[in-house]
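Lecture notes, continued. The same structure-token format from the folding unit now serves as the input rather than the output. Read the line below as a description of shape only.
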């Protein structure tokens, strides 16, 4: 989504040549939109449309803003209205495609990106977005062709190299694919040293290839350049070159997921086969009473809100908590929650004792090595008889241990999880193995865990 709308050079020159009352207001609206002052921007776009009912830029950018605020159907209608007036506007076609993509309407998104490219074959954002949608539709040969065509047309397009690296990593079938992905990440960094996601991906790729010293060198060099950056500090520990913390630091989680918020659903759902919300809530529904809308539910680490539509029918009250403000903004736009808060999870649970019938956590506790504090807090936040459900990445075998992996996430053994749940006071524990996502083209073994605070049990 173009979150920073801008007038084209042609339109800016026309506006200067023939100033009209709405032009100044439109420029003010765009400035406010770029500054994320959405209330002011929306009011000013409305004023433009009061002055000139069919002004296409105001319709287009108000559509972008409406989608940001969770009004996606309204956004589609506004951008379609703009395209009725200026049908060969590639940015509008691209943004309409982005809305369809983010709403899961992949065929419609593909059509919009292709129309944008008909209007402007050099619209690299549309071509990159087309590659992503083709990948999500599992047309991998077509997606690879679109990725490579983008880099043929724009060899210095840093994001293009990064996206091709992700594609090769996501669908790796041979070690050569991982080697090629690492080179793509290197090239993205050469072209744009600010792309911290590419730096992180390069380190992980090198570790996966068994080049552990090179992986650590990437993180050390990054940390030397940015000594206060929590990401290389955490990733240095993830590759075994520093002591692993008991859980990922708040600033690491916040930085990673604030930066990941806009593409989180796209990468996980469309490209990594992510199914933790569906599997976890399916497991919980087998335990919960049949009465609809009767439970107070906490989505602990709600992310972009993927669990909300799956559990909403069971919830009298649905609360979401996440450490990343960017993710909470996405959850708010998706809707379904009665309240959303930005907070550290363990502390928040400790401050809300005996308030919930269900505490669920899809792929949040993978950032906790030591589970005892957070599960003890979850036990206290539940009412007697309430259920906790969460997912983890699995260590296979009989050992009692947890470990930080090269991905920056933690894995836990069955025995470790069982012990910590028992010590926290949970009963009726169930720990089932499943595969909830892919990593490097391979399924990641995970645990789907449900446990109950016994009726009448003290906190």
């Amino acid at each position: 989504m173009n979150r920073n709308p801008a007038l084209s050079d042609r339109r800016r020159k026309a506006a200067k040549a023939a100033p009209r009352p709405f032009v100044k207001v439109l420029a003010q609206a765009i400035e406010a939109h770029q500054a994320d002052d959405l209330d002011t921007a929306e009011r000013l776009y409305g004023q433009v449309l009061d002055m000139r009912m069919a002004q296409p830029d105001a319709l287009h950018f108000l559509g972008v803003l409406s989608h940001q605020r969770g009004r996606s159907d309204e956004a589609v209608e506004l951008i379609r209205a703009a395209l009725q007036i200026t049908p060969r506007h590639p940015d509008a076609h691209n943004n309409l495609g982005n809305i369809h993509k983010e709403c899961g309407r992949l065929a419609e998104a593909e059509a919009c990106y292709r129309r944008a490219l008909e209007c402007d074959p050099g619209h690299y954002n549309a071509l990159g977005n087309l590659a992503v949608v083709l990948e999500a539709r599992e047309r991998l040969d077509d997606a690879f062709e679109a990725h490579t065509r983008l880099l043929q047309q724009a060899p210095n397009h840093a994001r293009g190299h990064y996206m091709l690296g992700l594609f090769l990593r996501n669908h790796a079938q041979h070690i050569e694919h991982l080697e090629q992905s690492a080179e793509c990440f290197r090239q993205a960094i050469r072209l744009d040293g600010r792309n911290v996601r590419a730096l992180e991906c390069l380190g992980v790729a090198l570790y996966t290839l068994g080049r552990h010293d090179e992986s650590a060198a990437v993180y050390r060099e990054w940390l030397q350049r940015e000594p206060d950056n929590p990401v290389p500090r955490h990733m240095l520990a993830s590759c075994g070159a520093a002591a692993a913390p008991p859980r990922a630091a708040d600033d690491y989680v916040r930085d990673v997921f604030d930066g990941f918020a806009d593409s989180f659903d796209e990468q996980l759902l469309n490209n990594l086969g992510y199914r933790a919300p569906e599997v976890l809530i399916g497991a919980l529904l087998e335990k919960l009473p049949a009465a609809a809308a009767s439970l107070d539910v906490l989505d602990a680490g709600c992310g972009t809100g993927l669990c909300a539509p799956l559990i909403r029918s069971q919830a009298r009250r649905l609360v979401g908590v996440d450490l990343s403000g960017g993710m909470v903004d996405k959850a708010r736009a998706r809707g379904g929650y009665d309240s959303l808060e930005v907070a550290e999870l363990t502390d928040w649970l400790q401050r809300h004792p005996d308030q919930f019938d269900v505490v669920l956590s899809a792929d949040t506790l993978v950032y906790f090595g030591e589970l005892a504090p957070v599960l003890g807090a979850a036990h206290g936040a539940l009412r007697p008889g309430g259920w906790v459900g969460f997912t983890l990445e699995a260590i296979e075998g009989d050992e009692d241990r947890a470990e930080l992996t090269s991905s920056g996430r933690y894995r836990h053994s069955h025995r470790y999880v069982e012990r910590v749940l028992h010590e926290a006071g949970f009963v009726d524990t169930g720990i089932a193995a499943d595969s909830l996502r892919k990593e490097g083209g391979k399924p990641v073994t995970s645990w789907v865990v449900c446990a109950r605070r016994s009726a009448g049990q003290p906190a």
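Point for the exam: The chain has three domains: 9-163, 165-243, 264-453.
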